[in-house]
């Protein structure tokens, strides 16, 4: 039995600034080619699907999409990077119990699954989004069957934070205008205690934001002292075109492993790295966010 999800468009509220100062957001602009509109897209059921990243079937092929502008709560505690993300989300929403992050992450996943149970529209320029998917992910806007922006609905329902890559909307709306709309929706969600905001502890919200600012400041100071180190904010390295020096910028990849990776080319998928001696499932999980496959090459016959 399908559950109907009630949706509504952006409200025209512009001056709700009661607590916007409590929540910091620094968008990461992504300059890319023109957006391509793909209609009659369907959701592909997959274990890796969550609220802001999921597989779809579009124009005869599978694509793994990552939404612009939003970041939904995590659904698992996988690896150190996953734990850090959960703590960051816990601080952002002012939660005392980190398990609430995962609980609402699962709610966001189910919310998206229901919304996308009918064909929908995707706008993408096929810009690469970092992540552990072996097939690569592409940033995209998703418009539901009834014409609503999925990212905006997630913010409105309190199931995501404003965080991530930005670009002008499919209708040409500038990025700062899109952000203004999303900030208004977030304020309404917070005041209504919608979604994850219902578990927010007001007395600890400002304290946790201060903790996050201090953690960010320490990390930035550390980064300023370290050179030639890639971060998850960088564009992923193309495995089939990477040099030894580029590969060594990936945490955990030394000169010996870098040479082995180069000798193992060409690769058809990031998962092919497990064929390299010394790279197991755990190593692959740590390396995958930093690499991608762009320059497909034919294997010698």
What this model shows, in words?
There is one protein chain. The chain has a 5-stranded mixed beta barrel. Strands 1-10 form a two-stranded parallel sheet. Strands 5-9 form a two-stranded antiparallel sheet. Strand 7 and strand 8 (137-143) form a beta hairpin. The protein has helices spanning 79-93, 99-115, 150-156, 175-191, 202-225, 244-247, 255-263, 281-287; strands at residues 28-29, 36-43, 53-58, 61-67, 70-71, 120-124, 128-129, 137-143, 161-162, 165-166, 237-238, 291-292. It is built from 8 helices and 12 strands. Helix 1 crosses helix 5. The protein is an alpha/beta fold and 301 residues long. Helices cover 33% and strands 16% of the residues. 34% of the residues are buried. Mean pLDDT is 80; it is low at 1-32 and 297-301.
Report the β-strand fraction as a percent range: 15-25%
In angstroms, what is the radius of gyration? 20 Å
Helix content: 25-40%
User: In which order are the strands of the major sheet placed?
Assistant: 2-3-4-8-6
Average pLDDT confidence is 80
Task: Give the ordered list of helices and strands.
Answer: EEEEEHHEEEHEEHHEHHHE
What is the overall number of helices? 8
Write the SSE topology:
Blueprint: E1 28-29, E2 36-43, E3 53-58, E4 61-67, E5 70-71, H1 79-93, H2 99-115, E6 120-124, E7 128-129, E8 137-143, H3 150-156, E9 161-162, E10 165-166, H4 175-191, H5 202-225, E11 237-238, H6 244-247, H7 255-263, H8 281-287, E12 291-292
Parallel strand pairs: 1-10, 4-8, 11-12
Antiparallel strand pairs: 2-3, 2-6, 3-4, 5-9, 6-8, 7-8
Helix pairs in contact: 1-5
């Amino acid at each position: 039995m399908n559950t109907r999800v009630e949706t509504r468009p952006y409200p025209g509220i512009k001056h709700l600034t009661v607590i916007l100062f409590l929540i910091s957001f620094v968008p990461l602009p992504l300059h890319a080619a023109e957006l391509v509109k793909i209609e009659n897209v369907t959701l592909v059921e997959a274990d890796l699907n969550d609220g802001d990243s999921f597989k779809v079937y579009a124009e005869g092929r599978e694509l793994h999409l990552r939404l612009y502008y939003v970041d939904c709560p995590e659904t698992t505690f996988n690896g150190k990077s996953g734990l850090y993300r959960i703590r960051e989300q816990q601080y952002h929403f002012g939660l005392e119990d980190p398990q609430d992050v995962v609980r609402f992450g699962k709610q966001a996943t189910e919310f998206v699954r229901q919304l996308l149970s009918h064909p929908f529209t995707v706008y993408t320029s096929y810009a690469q989004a970092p992540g552990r998917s072996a097939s690569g992910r592409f940033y995209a806007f998703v418009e539901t069957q009834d014409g609503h922006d999925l990212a905006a609905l997630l913010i409105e329902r309190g199931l995501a934070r404003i965080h991530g890559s930005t670009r002008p909307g499919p209708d040409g709306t500038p990025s700062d205008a899109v952000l203004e709309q999303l900030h208004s929706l977030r304020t309404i969600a917070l005041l209504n205690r919608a979604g994850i905001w219902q578990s927010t502890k007001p007395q600890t919200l400002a304290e946790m934001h201060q903790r996050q600012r201090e953690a960010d400041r320490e990390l930035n100071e550390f980064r300023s002292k370290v050179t030639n180190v890639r971060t998850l904010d960088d564009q992923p390295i193309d495995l089939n075109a990477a040099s030894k020096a580029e590969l060594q910028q990936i945490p955990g990849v030394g000169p010996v492993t870098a040479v082995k990776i180069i000798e193992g080319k060409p690769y058809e998928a990031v998962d092919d790295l497990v064929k390299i001696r010394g790279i197991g499932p755990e190593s692959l999980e740590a390396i995958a966010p930093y690499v991608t496959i762009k320059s497909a090459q034919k294997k010698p016959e």
